[in-house]
Amino acid sequence: MKNRSLKLLYLLSLCLTLYLSQITSATTAIEPSDLEMVVSARAIVIGEVSDISTGVQNDRVYSYIRLKVEEVIKGKNISSEVVLKQPGGEYGDLGTLIFGMPKFEVGKKVLVYLDSWADGALRVHQMFLGKFDITKDASTNQFFVTRDQGENVQLFTRANTASTRRAELNTFKSRLWNLYESNFSRAEKFEEETYGDLPMLAEPLEFASLRQRGQISPMWVTLNPPQPPRWFEPDSGQSIAYYVNRDGAPSPIVVDDVDAALRAWTEGTTLRFHLGGETSACQAGVNGSITVVFNNCDGSFSRSDGCSGILGVGGISKYLPSQSKSVNGMTFYKSLEGMVSLNPYGLCNVMNRCDLQETLTHELGHALGLGHTTDEIATMWPITHFDNRCNSLLGDDIQGIRFMYGSTGGALNITTGTDLLPATVNFPYATKLDATGGSGTQTWQLTGGRLPSGLQLSSNGTLYGLTFEVGTYNFSVQVRDTSGRSAQASFNLSVQAATPVPEISEVIYKKKKVIVTGQNFAPSGALYINDRQRFATFTSDKIQTDKGKLKVGTYTVYVVNPDNKVSNRFTLVIQ
């Protein structure tokens, strides 16, 4: 590898949007409050990036960011110079791409929240959420902090969350000092419970020995590599293996959920997958495979003081810049290993299997090489929808994956069933009409009947909108591909009245499960216990959580339907 001297950003991630017209860097996250960040971080410092280098550990590339510390807002025994360890980068003929990492540039000043790996090495707390750039406003000569969001990153912000994205530097420092001072006991308790006597190391344990052996390289690659990674197996008819580490999974049948998510990406493409087996490892270590984990076995995620932060990450943990291939006019590097890791501290936001499948489908899209799209209704939109789509792909997702991996060709056939998923009055609706075969881009149009007012059919086959009309609607469509082949079909769409308020009649705790009975529960509703969402299975009159031990005490239980209608609050007493 040539040593080129660039003061470069840390290799964050590769995201391919629809038509691969732009590359962005992001991941899905619940934006934490300033208070959560202050309590959860082990240290908060201001400093200047003086050096960025890369090295390999356990067959993954890591970036080492040297920071000259100028000011400590929180933290004990912080050295005047520290080296942060972040996953991702290129070293020699090996590359690693992990979504959600912060980016750095030599010579720039930053404010960072820090926590530590299991061995005490420092890293940015909550990935890109914990890093702020410090810049000077030319018009006022004041310094400002701006949260690192990458390109086209959009965060899901909870209601009433006091979270800073941009602020005047001194004002923000005063806010952090005041939050830390007024919540000192809470922060100390969190530190003791989470880290105990684990030290905060000035540099990673392996850094000095890597440097002495000449196994540290200056970071020279740009924010995104010159060519994106892609799996080459489908080009020769081979399938990609996937392995699942079920430890910590929110559902005992999570392998079925992973399989459902992967099947979504095979529709009309050359992609095929097979279960390589279950594994207890963080990475199966098998070329041509993707590993899915739930237990934070590699320590990627930090515990938070609340239910916020990164929901999950997906990416290509190993690729070869030396091997490339041109597809549809774009050159791709060869992917060797992919990974998806869901944050166990963030699964409190995943309410049921359908939400889990949507999250897995999204992150597996990253592991296949796709990034975030600007189409708000697509599954690869950076914000999860949790709208009962489960493992469905919409037009943008399909166009992107077919661009990278091609379509199966042959006769054009509409595969969506006649009776569509029902819509609800005054509630956002989106469903995708699918067709297999054909070649090139598919274009859809309405040819007969009518849609309820407020709904429309896009040219990519997505039916979406908001309607106030109750009833059953019949309509016909046609899809045409680039070669001129076409197919027609008719559909029925039922629009239902808004669901009534959910009502709880009984809550019991039995065999480590919370069982709620009542009426008017929506399948994609949310169960809350003491204001924390719990993973649960819904029917119209019964909700049941997965196994989980609850301590002796009093709990408040309630249900929220997708239209934000809230049930009565029921008190559960465990003695």
Can you give a write-up of this model?
The chain is 14% helix and 37% strand. It is mainly beta and 575 residues long. Strands 4, 5, 6, 9, 10, 11, 12, 13 and 14 form a 9-stranded antiparallel beta sheet that branches. Strands 7, 8, 15, 16, 17, 18, 20 and 21 form an 8-stranded mixed beta sheet that branches. A hairpin with a 5-residue loop joins β9 and β10 (122-124). α5 packs across α6. It is globular and about 70 Å long. The model is unreliable at 1-26, 150-157 and 220-224 (pLDDT under 50).
Offer a concise description of the structure.
With 575 residues, the protein is mainly beta.
Topology of helices and strands:
Blueprint: E1 15-16, E2 23-24, E3 29-30, H1 34-40, E4 43-57, E5 60-74, E6 81-87, E7 89-91, E8 94-98, E9 109-116, E10 122-124, E11 131-136, E12 143-147, E13 166-168, H2 169-182, H3 184-195, H4 207-212, E14 217-218, E15 229-230, E16 240-245, H5 254-266, E17 273-278, E18 289-293, E19 309-310, E20 312-327, E21 330-342, H6 353-367, H7 395-405, E22 413-414, E23 423-424, E24 429-432, E25 435-436, E26 443-449, E27 455-457, E28 462-465, E29 471-480, E30 486-496, E31 503-510, E32 513-519, E33 526-529, E34 532-534, E35 536-538, E36 542-545, E37 553-560, E38 570-574
Parallel strand pairs: 15-21, 16-17, 16-18, 18-21, 23-30
Antiparallel strand pairs: 1-2, 3-19, 4-5, 4-9, 4-14, 5-6, 7-8, 8-20, 9-10, 9-11, 11-12, 12-13, 20-21, 22-25, 24-28, 26-29, 27-28, 29-30, 31-32, 32-36, 33-34, 33-37, 35-36, 37-38
Helix pairs in contact: 5-6
